Amino acid sequence: MAKVIMTADDSASVRQMVTFTLKQGGYDVVEAVDGKDALQKLANTKVDMLITDLNMPNLDGIGLIKGARALASCKFIPIVMLTTESQDSKKQEGKAAGATGWIVKPFKPEQLMAVVKKVLG
Amino acid sequence: MIAGGNDSGTRDAEVRALAPGWSGILAKAAVELAVIAGTTEDEFLAIGGRLQDFYQRGLGISGLASEMVGEVAGDQVIGAMDRLGEMLDHMGHYVDRAQNEIEGSAQTLREILGLLEKVSDPLSGFKKVNKVLRMLGISTKIESARLGQSAAGFDTLASDVGELSVQVNDKAAFIMKRKDDLAREIAQTLSGVLESGAQQHDRVIEVLARTRKSLQALTEINTRCSSSVALVSAVSDEVYRSIGDVVMSMQAHDIVRQQIEHVHEALDEVKQGLDAGSCGADATATICELQIAQLHHASDELDGAVRIIMESLREVARKQSGLSAQTSGMSGIADQAGGSFFTGMERDISVVSNALLESSKVNQALCVAMGTVAETVGEIATFVGDIEKIGEEIKLIALNAQIKSAYTGDEGAALGVLAEAIQRLSIDAINHTGAVSGTLQGIIGVTDRLSQGVSVETTGLESEVHGMVQTLSDLVQTLRQVNDTLQHSLHQMDDSVTRLSTDIEQVVSGITVHRKVAKVLEESIRAISGVATEARRLAPAGTAGNLDQLAQRYTMQSERRIHESLNGPATGGRMPTLSAPPPPAADEDELGGNVELF
Which domain of life is it from (chain B) (predicted)? Predict the structure, then answer.
């Protein structure tokens, strides 16, 4: 059975590219338009990994990570930030919130796949 | 709201007079930027939607290419190659044997012709015997009449000899005619066998040479196809890389959108500062100059990204077209009009089959000729036997006449001489028949030998030919199947490539987002530049102070670099290097420089 990965990003085109890449790799993908939408979906959907943007309306990526980690089902899943932001302070903030890794946009499909494979084992 | 900065010493009154105009210009630019930032995503989504389709279709084309090279490099073709190799050896062996047989048979037929020629002399001897016998018969009748009653019975003897001589003559004439007919028939067969044999030999040799070349070509094709799986895979990788470039460039939309939104927010704040009178000329000029740089960067980024998208999509079409052409070439299919290597090979093999069947007919003709020779020689031998019997009969008659003439006494002396002459002639006739019989025996011996040889050989060659024709038929069937599969795949692949190329070109030619964005950004830059120029005229020295507040909203390193390059001491306000370096490939640094795992 294919593993499920959630992508949370307010940019539909970014979600589209993430979904396209992950589906080529054989994963099932759940999309969320922002942090709030993602948290709602995480409450009802079991996912194996979360890939989230940092800057999103309603609830940003850091808030999403904190919320997700509070869920029993997401306590130990890999969460990777996918953002244009590359400041170390932000990365540290993400790490502290519970992020597993950080990818600065734009990503290459093979890069994203390599990260996914690595963190999912 | 933007802090005023140090505007003391500037022309405050002029700033206050110009501020409403600047505010209006910047407000208009901000609105236009907000609109453009929010309306371009649909076009990107449309491109992204097609990308999935193009990628899947590209995979399908690569799959077809793999199937095609796999088909040519597969068991069926390898089996056909092995069988063709065996067939070539077999045919080479057959051609040599058939040619030897034909030459041997021709030699034997020539020998028979020579022997038949030898029959002419003894046959012409029968004519002489007949002539003399008839004369002796007449002389005997005359002498018998002269002697009267004492030579009674000699008259009948003369009549008998005359009749027998006529029979000898008739039978000799028949033998001569049959001999001539047979000689003619043999000469015709000989000419046909030699001509046809030579033709078949040359034809088969030519086709064999061509088929060897075909086998060589097939071997090369097979080798090429066996090694081209890697090529197909490489092309697929290249296509995937091009798709990867598109995926990467598609994200420019999000990056540029954020940058434009940040400019919009900055312009909005300057507007508010101008409206509130808290933003001076220097701050206005500096912020506007900064936003102009950000917009230039955004425009360049988007333009570059869209061009990469367009070029990469076209590259996908080019790669797939190239793969299609290469696969066609590799698998020996030059065109779609049946001009296939396999079609040519199939044609050659059909020619070989026909040549072999023709060759079999030559052997059958030889067999028939031998049968005719044997039959005719048998007939001749019967007639020769008849002549021999007649000779014996004449000899007895002559002996009887000699006895009778002895009883007749001196008066019958002449009849005795005639009887003796008749007896000698009968012996001559028997001797002639012996000569003819001897020659005929020679012909029969040669004919039997050849007939048996040809019969055995014909049976062997025929079964060999039929075996070869059957194998060739199977081979043709196999090659036809391979060819049909390849042609089908080729048509499918060409059709897919054509449709993919058309669809990609349609999508690419419909991409206008970069031009639309560039137009709006250019207009905004022009408007903001007007404000910046006027403001800078009023505040020539850039002392706007701390613009960190602006920097707070940046979410990208490129924005910060632009900000620093215009405000930091190192660059002194010059335009920075606008494009951020792309992330290194994953294999350069395992996951790439833009990836960090905690």
Answer: Bacteria
- Which tokens go with B70? 């796999």
Q: Do A13 and B251 touch (CB under 8 A)?
A: yes
Contact between chains at A14 and B254 (C-beta distance less than 8 A): yes
CB–CB of A100 and B596 under 8 A? Answer: no
Residue A110 sits in a domain whose CATH number is 3.40.50.2300
Residues of chain B that touch chain A, judged by Cβ-Cβ distance less than 8 Å: 41, 44-45, 48-49, 51-52, 55, 240, 243-244, 247-255, 257-258, 555-557, 582-583, 585-586, 590-592, 594-598
Instruction: Show the CA angle centred on residue A70, arms to residues A66 and A71, nearest 5°.
Output: 125
Task: Print burial letters for B65-88: b (CB count within 10 Å at least 16), e (below 16).
Answer: bbbbbebbbbeebeebbebbeebb
- Report domain extents, chain B: 17-73+232-339+498-540+549-562
Query: What does the DSSP assignment read for B529-556?
Result: HHHHHHHHHH--S------HHHHTT--S
3-state secondary structure B562-591: HHHHHHCCCCCCCCCCCCCCCCCCCCCCCC
Q: What whole-number distance in Å separates Cα of residue A17 and Cα of residue B72?
A: 38
Chain A from 37 to 76: CB within 8 A of any B CB: 54-55
Supply B61's token pair: 């084309």
- Could A16 and B48 be called an inter-chain contact, meaning their C-beta atoms sit closer than 8 Å? yes
- Number of domains composing chain A: 1
For B598, the closest of A55, A84, A95 (CB atoms) is A95
pLDDT band per the 50, 70, 90 thresholds, residue B339:
low
Residues B3-45 have pLDDT tens digits of 444 445 446 788 888 899 999 999 999 999 999 988 888 889 9
Q: What is the CA radius of gyration of chain A?
A: 13
Residue range(s) defining the domain that contains residue A26: 4-120
Any idea which of A53-57, A71-75, B40-44 has the lowest mean pLDDT? B40-44
Quick check: A91 contacting B, CB < 8 Å?
yes
Q: Is A16 on the interface with B (CB under 8 A)?
A: yes
